[in-house]
What we know:
Number of helices: 3
CATH class: Alpha Beta
Order of helices and strands: EHHEEEEHE
Number of domains: 1
Number of strands: 6
CATH topology: Alpha-Beta Plaits
CATH architecture: 2-Layer Sandwich
Oligomer: single chain
Helix content: 25-40%
Structural class: alpha+beta
Radius of gyration: 17 Å
Amino acid sequence: MGRHLVLLPAPEAEWAQLPPEEHEKGMRSHERFHGDLDAGGHRIVAAGPLTPSAEAVSMRPDGSGGTVVTDGPFTESVEQVVGFYLVDSPDRADLLRICREFAARGELIEFRDMVTGRQDDAEGAS
C-alpha cells in the first residue's frame, strides 16, 4: 500500500472571484473524485481546503540557532496550494488515472509519492 499526496494549487485571487456556480461545479468534481477513489479501493487518509496563503506563517533558521518567523507563504507566486488529499492506495497507476480524470474536469493537481521506510514517516513523526 503506497501513500500519496495530491496537492491542489490554484490562483487564489482568481479562485476567490469565481461565481458561486463555478464553486458548485468544483464541489461536484470533488465529490466525483471521492467516489472514484472509493470505487478503486483508494482510501482518503486526510483531505481539506487550506486557509489563504496570506494567512500562512513561514519559519526559517536565522543562522545563529534561532528562527525567523514571517507572515505569508515562503514564495510569492500566482498559484498557491489551496487544498490537499493524502491517499493510501494499493494501485498507484489506477490512482494516477483517477487524478488525470479529475484534472481533465478543470482541477490543477500536483501528485507526489510519500517516501516510505524512514523514521519520519507520518506514523513516526511528532
